[in-house]
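ok so I'm stuck.
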Amino acid sequence: MSFIKICFKDREIVCLKEIITLERDQIDEIRSWASDYELSRLKQKKYGLTLSYLTDTQKTVVLSTKNSIMAGKTGQEMKDEKTVKISEHFVERLSQRIGSDKKAIIIQLIEKVRDTNIVNKAQFKGYPHLSYTVTKNGDPDEYTFAIAFMRLSSGKHRIQIITVHLKNDEPEETEWRVSEYNDEYAKTLAKLEKFVRENDFKDEKQ
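replied:
not stuck anymore, here's the structure
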C-alpha cells in the first residue's frame, strides 16, 4: 500500500491512500501533475491523467484486492452488503442503454466487474485514490469499467464503479454531457438516478 502526500499548485494537499505500492517514478509523475494544476481544476477535468505504466505486480494487487471483495458473491449480495457503490458518471453511461428492468441491469454489470481479469491502466484525478480500467479476457461484449477502491474507516475497502464503456461506444473525446442530450434522454436519466438513489447503489460523485 502507499500513503503519499500530494501538494497542488494552489497549495491544496491530498493524501493519496492506494492499495498498490507506487514506484518512485510514478510518485514523481503524480506530483509533477499536481504542481501544474489547482486541485479544483483537476477534479473538474472530464478525464483523469493516465500513469505512464503499471507493473505486473501492481496489476496483480488490483485484481486480488477486487477479488477479495467480490469473488463468490452475486451482484445482489454485494449491493446488500454495500461493498460496491456506483458513481454519477456510471449512472449517466448506463442510462444510454437502459432496459425495462433497471435493477437487473445494474446487478448484471456489477457481476461483470466481478468477473474482470485484466487491468489496463491507472488514472489520477485529484482524489485520495487512483482509478483503474479493468476488462475481462474473452468478453464478447468487451465491457470496460473504471473502478476505484475507497478506503473505509474500518480499514477495509469498498469498490466504486465510476463508468462503463462498450466496444462500439464512441470515443470518449466525443462523449456528450447530459445537457446535450434530448429531453427524452434527460427524463430517462432522471428516472434512473431516482431508482439508483432509492435502492442505495450510488455513492459520492467522481
